[in-house]
Specification:
With 343 residues, this protein is mainly β. The chain has 1 helix and 29 strands. A hairpin with an 8-residue loop joins β14 and β15. Keywords: Signal.
């Protein structure tokens, strides 16, 4: 369902941690673009939906947190330089969770956690040793069905705000700098109803502020499933911009400079909850935020895309997390994940 690129073993290349729905979570260890699969996490199956890697205990390596939906059992692991200690009891909340992100919410130098739920989202403050205390009562949080949470400085004031992707109205919470957030969705976001699965930020029009790409589906709601772009006016207020028609049903998109021309391009993949197969899509940016469609290898049923230089050649590669369907262009089948290298 999700992947995270992170140098787990400290050898200088990016490994992959995969959150598996109704299976054991997976580590792919990278050796110059060749991956070895292992399962160093708990020997049990969970409905893992999202994963985040961050140095929560301040020891210089990245720890791993998986959040789960149906079985309401999150998994938290401290990294011991490539091996892991299960400290899941340090996460003091449960819930039907679909999303997780990190930020230093209260400016104390420690990475905190925000978990997006079917219900009230949760803020967990870190004491610096990877022990967490819930502080949700200090803020007003979304109580809808949240599918994505992103931390980004959208108002250019030096701290990270929160963008919440919901199955109805998306939200923006502005960071007050003291561990509290203000819901300013009504004044900062256009009134768009959509079943959002992913929010990505990046400066797509080259004006120095963060714009937003919103990826949508129509699995359970009757809203439009077309993706859309939100253009930042420089103060964290957004208007809907132009994006070429990409069809619908996109659970994830990534902004990445695939053609190495200095601007952010857009790669997206079609997603279904059936056995249908969709195509991967690429739109190249002309540096002003105007996109044109290009062909993209591969097709399948993709829920997450990871862009990273996996083989160390200075160019971004793409890893597609695929669910159930075949990756026709590569000859893989049976729900295999696949990894494309740019030429």
């Amino acid at each position: 369902m999700d992947g995270e690129a992170v140098d787990i073993d400290g050898d200088g290349d990016m490994d992959l941690v995969l959150a598996i729905e109704l299976g054991r979570n997976i580590l792919l260890t990278n050796n110059n673009g060749v991956f070895t699969s292992s399962k160093p996490f708990a020997a049990r199956n969970h409905d893992s939906e999202d994963v985040v890697a961050a140095d929560f205990d301040g020891d210089g390596d990245k720890d791993i947190l998986f959040v789960t939906e149906d079985d309401i059992t999150n998994e938290f692991y401290l990294n011991n330089g490539g091996s892991f200690t299960d400290v899941s009891n340090r996460i003091p909340v449960g819930g039907r969770s679909n999303a997780v992100t990190t930020l230093d919410a209260n400016n104390d130098g420690h990475l905190d956690i925000v978990i997006g739920n079917d219900g009230t989202n949760r803020l967990l403050l870190n004491d610096g040793n990877a022990n967490f205390i819930e502080q949700t009562d200090n803020i007003i949080f979304s109580t809808e069905i949240t599918q994505d949470v992103e931390a980004a400085d959208i108002d250019n004031d030096g701290d990270l705000d929160l963008l919440i992707g919901n199955e109805n109205q998306n939200k923006v919470f502005i960071n007050n700098g003291d561990g509290t957030f203000s819901d300013e969705s009504a004044t900062r976001l256009p009134d768009i109803s959509a079943e959002t699965r992913d929010i990505e930020t990046g400066d797509i029009d080259g004006d120095g502020d963060l714009d937003i790409i919103v990826s949508n589906v129509a699995f359970f709601e009757s809203f439009s499933d077309a993706n859309y772009v939100l253009i930042n006016d420089g103060t964290g207020h957004f208007t809907q911009g132009e994006l070429p028609s990409m069809g619908g049903q996109h659970a994830d998109s990534d902004l990445v400079d695939l053609d190495l021309d200095g601007d952010l391009d857009l790669v997206s993949a079609t997603t279904y909850i059936s056995e249908n197969i969709g195509s991967n899509l690429l739109y190249l940016n002309d540096a002003s935020g105007t996109f044109t469609g290009q062909s993209m290898p591969g097709s399948g049923n993709v829920f997450d895309i990871i862009a990273e230089d996996f083989d160390g050649d200075g160019k971004p590669d793409l890893y597609f997390c695929n669910r159930k369907a075949a990756m026709i262009a590569t000859g893989f089948d049976g729900g295999q994940d696949t990894y494309y290298t740019t030429n």
